[in-house]
Design goal:
721 residues, alpha/beta, six-stranded mixed sheet, two-stranded antiparallel ribbon, 8 strands, 52% helix, globular
Length: 721
């Protein structure tokens, strides 16, 4: 997942001394961030100052008039006007994601509407809009090519799409809408985090944990000890709603009552007071619909997709429906076979599955069909070796050399000297790396990693960027700075963190986003890296997952944590045979989310009210299996859609859309060499380095020599009829 918070390289564009900047830690322009200096008490004064300075820059540009306009004094000046604010606010948003606290949250929520209102006002500034239009009519503008022409087109579209041509009353309402959306979506995310952290399950009788893998048992025991629960004589096993804890319970635990208890707790996240998100969802949908109508669009989907590959909500829905129709019968068959398998195993008549037993019986059926248990793979995926192997692959395929740096951690508000060559981090588990072009040694950027769950950290996995480089005096792009985070299985006792294969795929996925950012070579910062259409942004991330299935690449990192041996051939072959187990079900699950998202934003947002579960049951009628009892929708905890003003809203289809692109693009690697440095460098040159400097369809065509083929996805999934 790509974090929707936009973060940019810092550059103070007004007259302000370095001394003043250093007195405001969130405004410190240094590349290496002093995380311990970023106290919540500094958020309000620092962001207030950044808002003031950014506004001054905007005002100066708006008042400069329409004469003698150039690319540098208009578009680049506009780009640089908010860089300090963007970087500072990005740091606040990042800390809110990984180090949430009452004090930080309070400061964040005070400044959030002010920041949102500031950004909403930029395209509504009529003097500024006249300046931009004046430049667009110059002789210089008419001769622009390449990224500069692209940036002009994108800037004009941005102003128009955000209300620049609206009458004054409508512009004011749009400002208010943006501020309201920022507040309610932030509250949605807070509710999910708080509800998730509010529940745990403590088991004192080990006999109730039969079926649970050894790794999960050790993790639950270590979690309890960390909370001061139990003793050597009377151990306690603690389970939470974070997926590395909850997932193995639903998948492996024999005790149905405990599985049910965990599933029911998970299904209540965002569903009950004081963390009920039901009304917030309708509020968010109403605000988004009003925003769309103000801007002359039928619905929010048409608004956000206009500059993306799909272009319209109707086309996105057509894509989802087409894939649904192609795999529906296989999906039905898979579910019927799973129900029959359960019935046969228990000597019962066939009937519907319960929602807390689908993963459990699927695991058992997979074992019977393929003699394969995913837990057999865990010993081959210690997290540090996975990371080292991933970096080795990056060098072999993409010519990227990655070196680890020493790190140091200080508590926020404490003082300490950072040793020479070391980098400060926000948590002791966080690591830091530099990335170089392996051919010429050029420093392309650096990044942090933060892989394991903790209560102040939001769930899921994501990539974000803290700094985007710009051309230096030699014309080279200065180093970028990014991060990748997740909530993977932690270590337990003396045993290292052993990952599931799906967790390995997630790390590779986020790394794909990361190198998309770090490999950016576009001269315009706002066109660099992951600043692309969101139904294209998942191509670099999802294509990386393919290397988690190839023998040649797996041998780089899949090594037994005790013996160092590679995955045995028989286990590898079982893994491949099981790859497409319940493949239609997995694909339909993503399509169900995409359908729900589109229908809510295209149809139900126009009359935002009703019983959510009933509505979504209607929407997903042929997309989800019939369970007994029916499972409530996950919509109240669906942060992808409702925890930011836009995010993946009306665009969740993007994952499956990009999967078509990645499946097709990887066929070139399969044909010319999975570890081909020639193909890898071509992908880096034509996709990763070019950001949003060209239409994504053109970029894909440049790499493949043709447009994308849907059949590639169906073939990979074993679903082509």
């Amino acid at each position: 997942m790509l974090n929707p918070v936009a973060l940019r390289r810092s550059s103070f564009s007004i007259k302000s001394s370095l001394k003043q900047l250093m007195a405001n830690p969130f405004l410190d322009p240094q590349f290496e961030i002093r995380w311990s200096h970023l106290e919540p008490s500094s958020i309000e004064p620092d962001i207030t100052l950044a808002l003031e300075t950014s506004q001054t820059s905007i005002d100066e540009l708006a008042e400069s008039g329409s004469e003698n306009r150039t690319f540098d004094n208009t578009l680049l000046a506009l780009e640089s006007a908010t860089e300090t604010l963007e970087r500072a606010w990005g740091l606040v948003g990042h800390l809110d994601s990984v180090c949430n606290s009452d004090e930080l949250r309070a400061a964040y929520n005070v400044m959030l509407p002010k920041v949102s209102e500031f950004y909403a006002r930029i395209p509504l500034n009529q003097k500024l809009w006249r300046v931009v239009k004046a430049y667009a009519e110059t002789d210089e503008a008419a001769t622009l090519t390449g990224p500069r022409k692209r940036f002009l087109d994108e800037t004009l579209a941005y102003f128009k799409d955000h209300g620049a041509d609206l009458p004054s009353e409508a512009r004011k309402r749009l400002e208010d809408l943006e501020a309201e959306l920022a507040k309610v979506t932030q509250k949605f995310g807070e509710n999910v985090l708080d509800a998730t952290n509010a529940w745990d399950l403590q088991i004192e009788d080990e006999s109730k944990l039969a079926g649970l893998p050894e790794t999960a048992l050790a993790t639950a025991l270590a979690d309890a000890k960390a909370k001061g629960l139990g003793s050597e004589a009377s151990p306690v096993w603690r389970f939470t709603l974070h997926y590395p804890s909850m997932g193995p319970v639903l998948q492996h635990l024999d005790d149905e009552s405990i599985r049910r208890q965990v599933w029911e707790a998970s299904s209540r996240v965002g569903h009950e007071e004081p963390h009920d998100n039901s009304d917030l969802i309708w509020q968010i949908l109403r605000l988004r619909q009003e925003k769309a109508e103000l801007l002359g669009k039928t619905d929010f989907a048409d608004l956000v997709l206009e500059r993306r590959m799909a272009k319209t909500g109707a086309k996105a829905d057509e894509f989802v429906t087409d894939l649904h129709d192609r795999i529906l019968e296989v999906h039905k068959s898979e579910y019927e076979e799973l129900c029959s398998f359960k019935a046969k195993s228990l000597g019962l008549k066939s009937g519907l599955l319960k929602p807390w037993e689908t993963q459990y019986w699927a695991e058992k059926q997979q074992k019977e069909l393929y003699d394969f248990d995913e837990e057999e793979l865990r010993p081959y995926f210690p997290v540090d070796r996975v990371i080292d192997g991933l970096f080795d692959l990056a060098q072999k395929v993409f010519n990227l050399r990655i070196e680890k740096r020493k790190t140091v951690f200080f508590e926020v508000g404490s003082s300490g000297e950072v040793p020479e060559g070391a980098v400060e981090v926000w948590h002791p588990e966080v690591k830091y790396y530099d990335m170089f072009d392996a051919t010429n040694g050029r420093n392309m950027g650096s990044f942090f990693t933060d892989w394991h769950p903790r209560e102040p950290k939001r769930g899921g996995a994501w990539m974000n960027y803290l700094r985007t480089g710009a051309p230096d005096e030699d014309g080279h792009i200065s180093p970028h700075l990014g991060l990748i985070c997740g909530n993977m299985t932690p270590s337990a006792g003396d045993r290292p963190a052993l990952l599931t294969h799906r967790e390995v795929e997630t790390i590779f996925h986020e790394f794909g986003h990361l190198i998309h950012h770090l490999c950016g070579e576009v001269e315009i910062r706002r066109l660099n890296g992951v600043n692309v259409a969101w139904d294209f942004v998942e191509l670099p991330s999802q294509i990386m997952e393919n290397w988690c299935w190839e023998r040649e690449s797996l041998d780089l990192f899949a090594r037994h944590y005790e013996t160092g041996k590679v995955i045995p051939d028989d286990l590898f072959n079982k893994m491949l045979r099981a790859r497409n187990y319940l493949t239609a079900t997995a694909n339909m699950r993503q399509l169900a989310f995409g359908k729900m998202d589109l229908e809510l934003h295209r149809r139900f947002a126009k009359e935002p009210s009703g019983e959510l579960d009933a509505i979504i049951s209607e929407i997903q009628d042929t997309y989800v299996a019939k369970l007994d009892p029916p499972a409530p929708s996950n919509v109240r905890r669906f942060t992808h859609l409702f925890s930011s003003s836009v995010g993946y809203a009306a665009a969740y289809y993007s994952y499956k859309w990009s999967e078509v692109l990645d499946a097709d693009a990887f066929t070139r690697f399969k044909k010319e060499g999975v570890m081909s440095a020639e193909v890898g460098m071509d992908f880096r040159k034509k996709i990763l380095s070019r950001g949003n400097s060209e239409d994504p369809e053109v970029l894909f065509q440049d790499f493949m020599g043709r447009g994308p083929r849907l059949e590639s996805l169906l073939e990979r999934a074993g679903l082509r009829s």
